[in-house]
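User: As part of a screening pipeline, I want to sanity-check one entry by hand. Below is the sequence and the SMILES for calcium ion. Please return the complex as structure tokens so I can compare it with the automated output.
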Amino acid sequence: MKNLYLSCLGLIAALSGHYAVFGQTITYADSVISFSSEYTSTNWSAKQVLDTPNTYPNYGDIPTSWTSQNMDGQREFLELHFSNFLPIDSIWVYETYNCGFTDTVYVKNPGTGLWEVVYSHPVDTISVARILRVGFPMTSFVVTEVRLAINSPDRTGWNEIDAVAVINSVVSSVNNNYNKHTFNIFPNPAGKQVYLDAGDYTGSGIVRVLDLAGREITTAAFNGQRIFPLDLGMLPEGMYFIRVETPGRKDLQKISVQ
Ligand SMILES: [Ca+2]
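Assistant: Here is the complex for your manual check:
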């Protein structure tokens, strides 16, 4: 009966399109895994795509962006790492010179180890700096690796990239550091019954159980108890977020229900 109840809830959520919207999390690339070529190891190097944009919205042949060793000599690629803890539904590519060259975007599925295509598009000729915003259904896994395939031969001239970001447009990054919780859930991995230790949360508040796409599945209220039970018997196995909110304070952590 509990499973049926959950199925109905999920169906209602899907039909109504109602999502628990908390904002978005934007994570810029923090290291280069691999690349086809770079102009030098400093100016226009692959490392120039890391961190927040520092060329965009400027357009031109600017050394704080990546470009390839040869102008139009071969197809190029960049593989980038993100310290990201969420599934994603968007990738932003900041193109800053002779734009429109990113023709395929992949995410690494950590379960299979394979690159999965999330965007494929013929070359465009765009002569202003642009953010290529690639949107797709929320991944079923956390994305930490992205591959950009660049059609340099078909987009004449130096093709330059300033920055790349992965985005979860549903869950806000109140606390992306899962080692520093101010509340605790045990056991984790969780069975059907878990306990929430409210830690240094005081007073009354609400606990929200969300799926990885940020959809609210159930809520529970608490009133100052330090430790209280949370019934997860209705949840299929998988990863979930537990969010604790009191006036002026909120925190998120991930649990595995088995
Ligand atoms: Ca080119």
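Points to compare against the pipeline: Residues 2-20+174-257 form a domain with the Immunoglobulin-like fold (CATH 2.60.40.3080). The chain has two domains: 2-20+174-257, 25-168.
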